[in-house]
Amino acid sequence: MTTIGIIGAGHIGSQVARKAVQLGYDVVISNSRGPETLADLVAELGPRARAATPAEAAAAGDFAVVSVPFRNYRDIPVEPLAGKVVIDTNNYYWERDGRFPALDKGEATTTGLLQEHLPASKVAKGFNHIMAKHITADGTPAGTANRRALATASDYAEASGLVTKLYDEFGFDTVNIGPLSESWRAERARPAYVVRQNAAELAENLAKAPRTI
Question: What is the strand order of the sheet 3-7 is part of?
């Protein structure tokens, strides 16, 4: 059975974990405060889930989901994620994260910076422009009329392909933005951000997004 290592057990990370265990995945979930603080969540998730440190979750996962505040992206363990697909849910909130001039100027992307931090991993954008509660509530079977769509981006086809597969299992269509250099199109305060949209609407919103905000 496939194991997902989840680094960050906040709103997005915990909702991904809930849906994943419903689908039959095993989950190893972590946060910055220690496994013992996740006892209630793991009890809720059931026998397919266990708590661990970030390094342990990274090592245990066949692939990983990173869902920590962007300011902490450099704390993500590097070596245990080498060779693995890493799904990045991050958005840049300068009010929380502090200023990153390269992001403010449109010279970098949040997920691109994580890829630089994880040079031996295959990083993809995912689950960053949907409200956490909708991850478990809005999915519908493939072929459903007006099915909600989510975006991904990666420099690796294997990584964006895995996100596409996971989205479909979670109940969403996919719009592939392309390389990480374009991943800003689905980020905060842009037309595609936390809006319910089908694939055609998402593609339109991504296309009209401004580079800087």
Answer: 49-52, 26-30, 3-7, 63-66, 85-88, 122-125, 149-154, 173-178
SS3 state of residue 172: coil
Partners of 51 in the β-ladder: 29
pLDDT, tens only, 7-16: 999 999 999 9
In the chain the domains, ranked by start, together with CATH numbers, are 3-207 (3.40.50.720)
d(CA 181, CA 179): 5
pLDDT at 1: 81
Q: Which amino acid is at 87?
A: I
150 in Cβ contact with 130 (< 8 Å): yes
Helix, strand, or coil (residue 183): helix
On the question of pLDDT at 165 being above 90, the answer is yes
CB atoms within 10 A of CB 67: 27
